[in-house]
Structure formats: structure tokens, C-alpha cells
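Input (structure):
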């Protein structure tokens, strides 16, 4: 009997980094004030729980960043100690041009995103897709974690 390992990839924007706008309607993450955005505490806690069960080698953070934004993303993640607080290795930050290809290369079995469009693009590449609701992070994690850990 072959056992398949669960490998999770979790999107960052809208799940770990809140998609908060400034007074001009521009996302704060794309302004000079981006470091003042605090991580979504529920997501940090939930990802820590998942890492404790699956192991740090089985969890990736994944985000499609425009050229030049990868450095900003890494700076934000380090500034807020996301790797340390979740137990996810910094080497498990994936910023691919194509998420489907990257998920296949990393053998991702479970993927979390807050956008239907992103999940639709992964149909056929990732077996288990989960929609995260940034307006209800606690409810989202209560629904997702049991599915991940069964």
C-alpha cells in the first residue's frame, strides 16, 4: 500500500497579508507603508498548526509577484517573522510565473487561495483546492484544517 504525503501550498495575499486599501483606494502593500500591514493572526496560527502536523517540508507559501515585488514580499514576510512564527522554511517561499507548473513540480496536493479565478486555473494540477474567505478567516480555517489533516 502506497501512502501519499500531503503537500500544502498557501497563497499569501488575502490570506496572510490583508488586502487593505489606503485612503486613495490603492492596496497598502503597493505603497511605501506596506510594512505597517500586520499579518492575519488567524492564518499565522493555523499555518503553524498545519506545519506541526505535516512537517515543515510539506508546506509552501506561494504568491505570484510582479517583477520587483518579490523583494518587497520577502521583506514583509521577514519583517513580520512569518517564517519563524509559522515554522515554514524561507526556502519554501515560491514565487512562480505559473502556479500550476510550480504546484506540479513541488508535488502540491492541497492549495489554498482567496480567489476563484486562481483556483480554477489549478484544476487538474492540484487535487484539493480550498477557497479562503478573507472576511471570515476563522471560519475558513475551521473548514480547511480538518480537510488538510485527515
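Output (sequence):
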Amino acid at each position: 500500500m502506497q501512502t501519499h504525503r500531503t503537500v500544502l501550498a498557501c497563497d499569501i495575499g488575502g490570506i496572510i497579508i490583508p488586502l487593505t486599501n489606503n485612503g486613495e483606494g490603492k492596496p497598502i502593500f503597493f505603497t511605501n507603508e506596506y510594512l505597517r500591514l500586520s499579518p492575519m493572526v488567524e492564518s499565522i496560527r493555523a499555518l503553524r498548526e498545519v506545519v506541526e502536523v505535516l512537517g515543515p517540508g510539506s508546506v509552501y507559501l506561494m504568491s505570484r509577484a510582479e517583477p520587483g515585488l518579490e523583494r518587497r514580499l520577502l521583506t514583509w514576510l521577514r519583517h513580520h517573522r512569518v517564517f519563524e512564527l509559522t515554522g515554514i522554511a524561507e526556502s519554501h517561499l515560491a514565487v512562480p510565473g505559473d502556479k500550476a507548473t510550480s504546484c506540479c513540480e513541488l508535488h502540491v496536493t492541497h492549495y489554498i487561495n482567496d480567489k476563484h479565478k486562481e483556483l480554477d486555473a489549478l484544476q487538474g494540477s492540484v487535487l484539493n483546492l480550498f477557497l479562503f474567505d478573507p472576511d471570515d478567516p476563522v471560519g475558513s480555517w475551521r473548514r480547511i484544517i480538518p480537510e488538510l489533516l485527515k
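Notes: Residues 41-54 form the longest helix (14 residues). Strands lie at 8-11, 59-62, 93-94, 110-113, 128-131.
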